[in-house]
Amino acid sequence: MLFRTAAETLRTIAADARHLGAEIGFIAVLHSWGQNLHYHPHIHCIVPGGGVSPDGSRWISCRPGFFLPVRVLSRLFRRRFLEELRAAFDAHSLKFLGDIACLTEPAAFTRLLAKARRLDWVVYAKPPFGGPKQVLAYLGRYTHRVAIANSRLIGMEDDRVAFRWKDYRHGGRTKVMTLDAHEFIRRFLLHTLPDGFHRIRHYGFLAN
Prior knowledge:
Elements: H1 2-15, E1 27-33, E2 39-46, E3 50-52, E4 59-61, H2 70-90, H3 106-118, H4 132-143, E5 153-157, E6 160-167, E7 173-180, H5 181-189
Antiparallel strand pairs: 1-2, 3-4, 5-6, 6-7
């Protein structure tokens, strides 16, 4: 659902002549963790600065320093994703356990969607890479990495693990977090791929 709605959002806005008027391609990589190792699924997309014209005859470049409007992307993504959630709920494809078991009730789920619809959703766009080598280096970091690098680990004492993390909600400040070993392992294992998925993960990108 996340891949599909992200792809539809990018392609729809790019195809609009008011914004680009072209068919774009891109690479998308699933990333399931945040700096504090909590489960935080999101997608990183590498998108060229332009696309092919509708008739396939020429390349259309985006404006210098600008690709697609992030506010327009954000609003369309919000609408498409919430539509997909509603469809999945109506098809009985969603499961709610533990603290969110109450969402099995249609009225409660409808209230959740209404609340989410009132929030501002954010698509984060970064400036272009320096060139092909930088693109490959970036892509490699996101397809061949684990939830936490050894360089962020500080130490373990009295069954508690300390590690560095960046608090992006407060200006990207580097902080130290200390967790019980069991909680640290629990968070780490949230991002362990199922057996067999390692063999296909490198082909799980989205193009066009």
